[in-house]
Specification:
The model has no long low-confidence stretch (mean pLDDT 94). Helices cover 45% and strands 16% of the residues. 48% of the residues are buried. The chain has a 9-stranded mixed beta sheet, sandwiched between helices. The radius of gyration is 25 Å and the shape is globular. Helix 7 links the parallel strand 6 and strand 7. The chain contains 22 helices and 15 strands. It is an alpha/beta fold. The protein binds 1,6-di-O-phosphono-beta-D-fructofuranose (FBP). The site of 1,6-di-O-phosphono-beta-D-fructofuranose has 13 residues, from loops.
Length: 547
Amino acid sequence: MKKSALQTARASYQPKLPEAIKNGVTIVEGKATQSVADQEAIAKLFPNTYGMPVLRFEAAAKKEYPAINVGVILSGGQAPGGHNVISGLFDGLKALNKESRLFGFLLGPGGLIEHKYMELTADIIDDYRNTGGFDIIGSGRTKLETKDQFDSGLEIIKELGIKAVVIIGGDDSNTNACVLAEYYKQIGAGVQVIGCPKTIDGDLKNEMIESSFGFDTACKVYSEVIGNIQRDCNSAKKYWHFIKLMGRSASHIALECALQTQPNICLISEEIEAKQMTLDDVVNYIAEIVAARAAKGNNFGTVLIPEGLIEFIPAMKRLIAELNDYLAANGSEFAMIKKSEQINYIIKHLSPENSAIYASLPEGVARQLTLDRDPHGNVQVSLIETEKLLGEMVGRRLAEMKAEGKFVGKFATQFHFFGYEGRCADPSNFDADYCYSLGYTAALLVGEGKTGYMSSVRNTTKPASEWIAGGVPVTMMMNMERRHGEMKPVIQKALVRLDGAPFKYFAAHRDEWAMNTCYVYPGPIQYFGPTEVCDQPTKTLMLEQNG
Ligand code: FBP
């Protein structure tokens, strides 16, 4: 692998660890825990792993540990810092016993089921320290959920003498990790399962997990480019930039980027849903700000749009649900309709409310809603170009306002989508340290014989030496939710809280940011330099922890 100058210099960065786990450790157990909701149902489904205490590691005299073989899996979308979780895990296992070995299952959970793996030796690990990406072993979205899969995994686990599997993933992958932990314990397989909280989306967090890794770096990458666009925008003063930001469902990324860059407008899906806003309400909200800025001679601005917005607009949600049902039942008839007639065909066959909304959509979006479907026949919401949808509809609304004498300016647009470019960036110092600590902590949980736990590192707005490392029982984060028509135990997804400090701060400032140009230009992530430039956590975390 040819290395860039930064990669070479960055390879020698030694990530920081909490002081308490640098040498020997002892476990301090908290009280027995309960799931966040549906206690009876979850306790029944997890008789062997429910109710375990929260664990905290404290410094103690060094102990002897036997050599342990461990398997690791990267699951789901890439997030900066995955390689540091693996290097922390590797170093942690070697610190327990230098004969310990680490095996990586290839291309996600599928590697465990299909017995595809590689041993991760010191040379390989060294090549990937402090780098972005998941390419060391690859990732995948195969869901680990059936008994056959668990049994197939157990065959290779036994063959390699593996005592524990560490699953690095988001809420669904960690839910499945817990189901696997429960199953292996129930059948007496002697295999531990530990989870690590990953996702740029930032929606795997709760009282004990302060943030999922990768959120920090991804938001800093997006904020850098948003800042650059804002400077361009403020220089030429002639475009409105509509910027869609990744984050399948929750709006944490959009909110954090708004806190970092102070755009003119940022939409928060959770607020739009809470206020039961229609698509027209959202369009009017943006158009009013464009018109008010134009009245002051400012025909430019920025709008941040969370990727999941469409599904949070109640009327759009109803339209998508009807389209899904209608096309599932009448797909073959629809396939026979001439392309030029398809939109009219759908308009004629939907209920009056949904038909009116569908007819009001720009043609490109209407087509996306009916043609681009996933293997289950559902609309691929993340492919919908929401930024263009809103830009076009705002343009139409402004034309009406112009005719009414309510808009006096010009409206020219540019569109952007920032997603994949942030998922594999070299981890920021925060993510490099946080991930390494999560991996190292996972090794300690394995060494202490724990299963059904998620590695947890808290107190993260303080210097790394003061971070608190331990484990949280995964069942503690669960509730029952309807999935594919059935009630299932799942880790509760954390959406943006409208009563939380980050949203409240944003809401208190957004009117000023809308009318005045208050852009902030964060610049690129810095890996070397003063701590106030290089080591800051996200604004979301700072506000959540410190108000
Ligand atoms: P995870 O939840 O698996 O971490 O993935 C998050 C994410 O990056 C979302 O923000 C995005 O909607 C999705 O993955 C894209 O998925 P894919 O990589 O399959 O296109």
